[in-house]
Structures are given as structure tokens and as C-alpha cells.
Amino acid sequence: MSQMKTGPVLVATNLSARDDRAIDRAAMMAKLRGVELVAVHVVRPGSRRSENMDAARAALQDVIPDGVEARLELPVGSAPTAIAQLAENLGAQLIVTGVARFNDIGDYFLGTAVDHLLRHAKVPVLVVKRRPHRAYGRMLAATDLSDTSAGAIRTAGALFPDPPMHVIHAWHVPFAGWQKASHVSEETQANAQKALNAFLAKADLPPDLAARMAPELMEGGAERAVLDAVAQYEPDLLVLGTQGCGGFRKAALGNTASALLGSAPCDALVVPPHC
């Protein structure tokens, strides 16, 4: 069972106006969880801000909403590396970040810093796209039936102890163009349902989380099935697990999870494996 850390919520910002969504969500999360909020802006070595750290601190304080208390951190270095290291040093339970830009609904550009952070952070990363008005009310988790995805579901359940969660597993008939008999599709779906049931039975889910979960099979490839589920259920939060450690983790994130992060219109929680 996942044991949530009691450390702070850390929000990363490059001081741009679009980061206000991430900052507002992080402040809400810290308040709901009763923990410290840490705002971090990484100063690039040799930049103008690095020559006047007092001004940099004032600029960081300026993006914090009135009435919100936050510890300010201004490490100097590479943004994704410094953020991941600070989160580890502080024992942060969550990193919150925004996207580099959003061109239109379904077209989000994470940016190289966020992409690097997702591949290297040792704590969950919450990617905020929408302006927060309230706590998350509906979650949707994608599972490939791996231990990593079970951990992601448990982590999301611990971080967000109230909203219901749809758990989606994609299935499809191999070489469907050649498989004409209906019994092949029925048998494949039945086997997928058995595998999903077995996964949930051994996933070590707390009873309160299991009670608010609705598992479901969705036909199609993984990305298409999850996007169809997002369109159908309109979740506030999409839950994704990343696979592997080190170099393999870097490669794994580049497939379905990365595509979903760029196209799903809702916020996303990306949970790393316990490496």
C-alpha cells in the first residue's frame, strides 16, 4: 500500500503569466493536505537574474497570490535537474508544474524542462492545464495491469481521498483485419476482463479507494481508448504511471503517456515507479 509523504507541495514556475494555474492548484493542494507550499524558480547561471538575487526573490514573491504563504527557493542551475533535486532534498510529496504553452484544446506543449522533469523526478508530478476553481471531482486512471500502474492508482487515491476514479484498461483483437469470427473478439474481451479483475484483486487497494473505483474495459489502442474515456467521463484529473528506471524509464514515457499528456485536455498526475 502506498504511504504518502508528509513533506511539502512544491510548485515550479518560470515566472510567466501562464504559470498562475499551477501556482493556484499547488496552493489549493497544500491547504487541503495541511502541508507547506514551496515555490521554486530556478535561476539560470550567468543570467541577469543571477546577478541580482534579491530582485529574483521579489519577482517570485510577486507571482504568489495574496494571502498564500509559501517558502521561496531560488536555486541556480538547470531547471529540471534543480527542481527534481530540491524535491528530493525537501522530501516533497508532490511537484506541481504547468505547460509551456497551450495552443488549443487538445494541443498542449509540455516543454523540454517539464518533459525532463517527468522522466527524472522521484515523486509524483502534477501537470496543470486548467484553471482550478475547486478540488478535483472526477479522476480517470489508465492501467496496463502492471505493478507500476497499480502504484500510480494507489498514489492518486492517497493524494486525492474523495473523488471517484474510473480505471480504464484498453483491449483490442490482434490483427483485427484478419479476425472475422465474432467469437475471437468475444474471447479476447473475456480474457481482458479476467486479467483486469485479477489485477485489481492483487493491487493492494485500500478499501475506501476500491469502493470509489469503477473499472472498465475500453476497446482500441491504449491512447485512443483513454482519450475516448476522457471524452465520455470528462475527468478533472488523468492518472498515469511511468515504466522502468533510468534509461528505460526515459524511453517508456515517450510513448502513450507522453502522447496523452500532450492531447488530453485535463490535468494529469504522472507517478514514477519506486526505483
Automatic annotation (TrEMBL):
Gene3D superfamilies: HUPs
Matching PANTHER family: STRESS RESPONSE PROTEIN NHAX, UNIVERSAL STRESS PROTEIN RV2623
Protein family: Belongs to the universal stress protein A family.
GO molecular function, one term: ATP binding
This protein's UniProt keywords: ATP-binding, Nucleotide-binding
Name under which the protein is recorded: Uncharacterized protein
Stored InterPro entries: Rossmann-like_a/b/a_fold, Universal_stress_UspA, UspA
Pfam family of the protein (one): Usp
Domain of life: Bacteria
Source species of the chain: Croceicoccus naphthovorans
